[in-house]
Amino acid sequence: MAKEVGYRKFSIQKSLVYFVLVFGSLASLFPFYYMFVMATRLNREINSVPPPFTPGQDLVGNFQKVLGNIDFFGAMGNSLFVASAVTIGTLFLCSLAGYTFAKLDFKGKNILFGMILVTMMVPPQLGLIPQYYIITTLGWLNDFRAIIVPGLINAFGIFWMRQYIKEGVPFEIIEAAKIDGCSNFRVYWNIVVPMILPAFATLGIIVFMFVWNDFLWPIVVLRDQAVHTLQVALRALNDARQVDYGMIMSGTFWATVPLIIVFLMFNRLFIQSLSEGAVKS
């Protein structure tokens, strides 16, 4: 009897957990769904009372308006290039630095790592003016280097890689490789990198999404329309005297699709990284 009561209690708790997870998932997806609904409607339908909650028939028409106002695909190509370059560079440099802080011993290592962590508490807006001065001195205005180079390394990426490598790569494997004559870089490239692919996926998704959605820094340094990233180009849709919400939501919806594709591509490694971290902790 007690076992049956315990089983019922466990079933109720399990059902409650699933209910909360399903409800949370639907609540998280609703803004994206409603953005799609607005992207398929005309302005008069969006402003009606009550507002529509089902898709309409103007998705193609609204997107044609977007294409008529901005170079959508050109800006998307710019964003893909910049986000991919920053992501690849960040993964390489941050993982290399993380391996150095996790597995190599040198004087002042802990102090230097602490100084890197301190920079995480500094709002990025505070560095906007000195960073802009450096970019103008180098002559990089209206150049993709103004976005790519400053974003190649960040404190969170170093911290994330250092923690993952420290816990996920045994010292014995590294020592065995060094005994076999491997240099530090070869140990990193041939031993460490294949073992931290889930960490690569997690950091890559975070960095790619951040660069893709970044608006403040690109609008400061990219003034030429030919080099506008997608977020900067979408801003031009608000410049009209009468705001067309269907057109704006159409551009925003299609600008979000590449992020979903990237996440789905690396979803398995992303979940694996979080699961391994939960097991180790």
UniProtKB/TrEMBL annotation:
Topological category with respect to the lipid bilayer: Multi-pass membrane protein
Main location: membrane
Domain of life: Bacteria
UniProt KW keywords: Cell membrane, Membrane, Transmembrane, Transmembrane helix, Transport
Annotated ranges, domain ABC transmembrane type-1: 76-266
Places the protein is found: Cell membrane
A GO term from the CC aspect: plasma membrane
Transmembrane segments: 16-36, 80-99, 111-132, 144-161, 187-212, 245-266
Protein name stated in the entry: Binding-protein-dependent transport systems inner membrane component
Species classification: Bacteria, Bacillati, Bacillota, Bacilli, Bacillales
